[in-house]
Amino acid sequence: MAEPTLADRLGGLREAVEVAEGRLAVPEVGRARTLLAKAGARQALGEATVVALAGATGSGKSTLFNALSGAEVSTPGVRRPTTGVAHATVWGPAQDPLLDWLEVPRRHRHDTDPALDGLVLLDLPDHDSVRLEHRLEVDRLVELVDVLVWVLDPEKYADAAVHDRYLRPLAGHAGTLLVVLNQADRLPPADLAACRADLRGLLDAEGLADAALLTLSGRTGEGLPELLALLGRRVAERRAATQRLTADVRGVARSLQVHCGPGTRTATDDAGLTRALAAAAGVPAITAAVERSTVKAGTAATGWPVVRWLGKLRPDPLRRLHLGTGGRSSLPEVGSVQEAGVATAVRRARDAAGEGLPLAWTDDLRATSEVHADRLADRLDRAVSGTDLGSDRTPLWQRGVGALQWAVTAAALVGVLWLLGLVVLGWLQLDDLVPLPRVEGLPVPTLLLVGGLLAGLLLAVLARPFIGLRARRRARRARRRLEEAVAGVARAEVLDPLAGTATAHARFCAAVTRAAA
C-alpha cells in the first residue's frame, strides 16, 4: 500500500479538526489547527529549504554559521550581545516573503555556491539564554524551520535541558534533524571518538537513530565539507519542507489518537426512554382524559334526553387540558418521580452511546445531552399538544340509540299528557265520554309512560358497555399516537444527537488514522 501524500495527510487532519470543532475541548485540536495554518502558509512560500542552527551559549553555533555563510554575519562569543532575533543567510534568489513569514529581519545574501541555491540558513538565539524573549524566539522558529541542525559541544552535549526539551520531542522528526558535535579540535582523537559514541547512544535511546550525527569544528573548518554536502543534498531534493510538514502532521495526528477508542456502542433502550418521556409528557393523563371524554360524549348521545343537560354542567376532561391551542397545554406539572425516570433513561442512552469512547468524547456526549435536555420539556409539550388524538365524531350506532331515546321519551311524554288529560276530564266529570284503551287490562297511557321511562333506562344501561369499549379503544389509539410523537422527540432530542457524537467519533478516528499513517 502506497504511503499517503502530504496532501492526503493534511486532508485527514483537516477533517479531524472540523469534526472535533465544538466537540473536543482538548489542546491537541488547537495544535492541529495551528499546524494546518502553518502548512498552508509554508506551502505557498515555495520550495526553498530553511535550515536553522540551534544550540546553547558557547557551543560555537555562531562561529559555524559564519563559516557556512563565508562572512562575519553573526557575532560569536560566550556572552555575545544578541537581540533575541535570528540572522539569515540566503543562497541564490532572495527569499523575502519566506523570511517575512519567519519574522527574521537580519538577512545576508550568499552568491558564490550555486549548489546551495535555495538554502536559507538561520542562526537562532541561544536556547539557554537568560533572556526569556530569546528562548521564546528559539521555540517559535524551531516549530517553523524545515531542517534543524542542533549544535552541541563536548562539555554540554549530554545536557538534560536540551535533550528533554528539544531533542527527545523530535523523535518523530529524525529525518529532518541533524546533530553536530562541534569544537572537535578541542579533543584528542580517542576522547572525540568516545564522546561521539556516547552522544550516538543518547540519541538512539531517545528515538533519534535516524538522525545524522557529524563531528566538526566551525573554527578550523574540519568536517565542514561533509555538512555542506549534506545540506546540498537536502536543498537539491526540494523536499525538506514537505518532509518537515509530514513529520509534523504525523506527530500531531498521533497525539490526537489518544482521543480515539473502539467505540463499541451497545443497543439503547429506546422503548424505555420513550416510556419515561411519555410519563413526563403527561401521556397517561391525556389517555385517561380521552377515555373519560369519550365516555362523557357517548353517555350524552345515548342517555335519556330529559337529563342530558346535567352532563353539560361538568367540563369535558380533554378540553380542560387545552391541547392543540398553539400554546402550552394545561397538563399537570412533572413530578419528581417522572423527572428521575427521564434522567435515568437519558443517562442510560448516553452510557450506551458512549460505550468504549475516550473521556473527551463522553464529555461531549454529556454536554450534548444536557443542552438538548434543556429544551426537552417544551418539545414534548408541543409534540403531545399537536398530536391528532383521533376522530371524536359520534358513531352511527350512538346516533341510532339517541334517536330511539327521543322516540321512547316522546312515548313517555304522550303518556304523561294523556294521563293529564284524563285527570282534567275526571275533574270535569267527562271521563265517561272518552273511552280508555287498555292492553291486557293496563291503560295505554300508563303503558306509554312507564314503558317509555323503562325503555330509556334500559337503552342507557345497554349502551354503557359499548360506550366504555369504544372509549378504551380510542384511548389506546391516542396512546399509540402520543407515544409515536414522544418517540420522535426522543430521537430528535436524545438519540440522534448521541448517535451523531458516536458517528463523529468514528469519522474523527478514521481521519486521524489517515493523517498518522
Can you characterise this structure?
The protein has 517 residues and is an alpha/beta fold. Helix content is 58%, strand content 8%. The strands form two sheets. A seven-stranded mixed beta sheet has the order 3-2-4-1-5-6-7, with helices on both faces. The longest helix has 73 residues. The termini are close together. The model has no long low-confidence stretch (mean pLDDT 86).
Task: Give the topology, please.
Elements: H1 6-20, H2 27-43, E1 49-55, H3 61-69, E2 87-91, H4 96-102, E3 106-110, E4 119-123, H5 132-142, E5 147-152, H6 160-167, E6 177-181, H7 189-205, E7 212-215, H8 224-237, H9 240-256, H10 270-280, H11 283-302, H12 308-311, H13 336-353, H14 359-374, H15 376-385, H16 396-427, E8 438-439, E9 442-443, H17 444-516
Parallel strand pairs: 1-4, 1-5, 2-3, 5-6, 6-7
Antiparallel strand pairs: 2-4, 8-9
Protein name: GTPase
Transmembrane segments: 403-427, 447-467
Keywords: Membrane, Transmembrane, Transmembrane helix
